[in-house]
Design goal:
Length: about 250
């Protein structure tokens, strides 16, 4: 599925700390946007607010025909938003007491209300696509970090979401597992899945993203095509950040 997505005036405070300050951002169907920026700048909070893992204080989130206004969001609005977004966590966040297959089925049976049989068939199809067809019965503790994160990504893929949100999907991995996870995300990006990905992998962002968004201090400072941001950034804060990480 894909649709136009727009975020308008998104604001989030933790106590007196304004972590997101009037963020506006739109994505066209199939667009792949990478968010970069210093730590503590609100990147995770932005992704979490889009899935209502954190509740924004203000702002409007629109996915196709669904509009959710933070100041008036109902339980049904929030469920509808969750149904249409998939989240990939830095630390995988798999259920330890469920197998790889059950982890992938969970969102389909709980959020989507699919039957067990239908969810199992979909999970098996996804396990094959993430290269784990023979590991469906394995528990997370029996899988490598790279395999666990592929299951985490598979769980989001299974939802066929309008928007996939990936929060530093490789930064908790031992270096040996980073490549296989980036390969999987690259394949998803090649399939034109609309995505917002927070990453420290600058080379990867440059390669897969249509647009780079640089955030600092809870605001979008600058955005543009990779060649512009990496080659000719206009704002000194962007240039300073890129010098530090590059
Ligand atoms: P990033 O992902 O860019 O590193 P975060 O979105 O995780 O940044 O955090 C942005 C700011 O919000 C930080 O100052 C962080 O301490 C604060 N923050 C994040 N989550 C919470 C929370 N649940 N309660 C209080 N403060 C939080
Ligand atoms: Mg973060």
């Amino acid at each position: 599925m894909s649709c136009n997505i727009s975020i308008s005036g998104l604001t989030k405070r933790f106590g007196t700390n304004t972590v997101l300050n009037d963020i506006s951002l739109s994505l066209t169907p199939g667009e792949r946007v990478a968010i970069i920026g210093p730590s503590g700048t609100g990147k995770s909070t932005l992704l979490r607010c889009l899935n209502y893992l954190d509740r924004p204080d203000k702002g409007l989130i629109t996915l196709g025909d669904l509009s959710v206004d933070a100041e008036r969001a109902s339980r049904a609005d929030i469920l509808a938003l969750r149904r249409r977004t998939g989240f990939v966590f830095q630390n995988y966040a798999l259920f330890a007491n469920k197998t790889a297959r059950q982890n992938i089925m969970e969102g389909l049976t709980v959020v989507r209300d699919w039957s067990k049989d239908k969810a199992r068939a979909r999970a098996d199809e996804i396990l094959a696509r993430i290269g784990l067809a023979d590991r469906g019965d394995s528990y997370p503790s029996a899988l490598s970090g790279g395999q666990q994160q592929r299951v985490g990504i598979g769980r989001a893929m299974a939802l066929d979401a309008d928007l996939m949100l990936l929060d530093e999907p490789t930064s908790a991995l031992d270096p040996e597992w980073v490549g296989e996870v980036l390969d999987l995300i690259r394949r998803i990006a090649d399939g034109r899945q609309t995505m917002l990905i927070v990453t420290h992998e600058m080379q990867f962002a440059r390669e897969i993203a249509d647009r780079i968004v640089f955030m600092d201090g809870g605001r979008i400072v600058e955005q543009g095509p990779p060649e512009q941001i990496f080659g000719n950034a206009q704002d000194e804060r962007t240039r300073a950040f890129l010098r530090r990480v590059g």
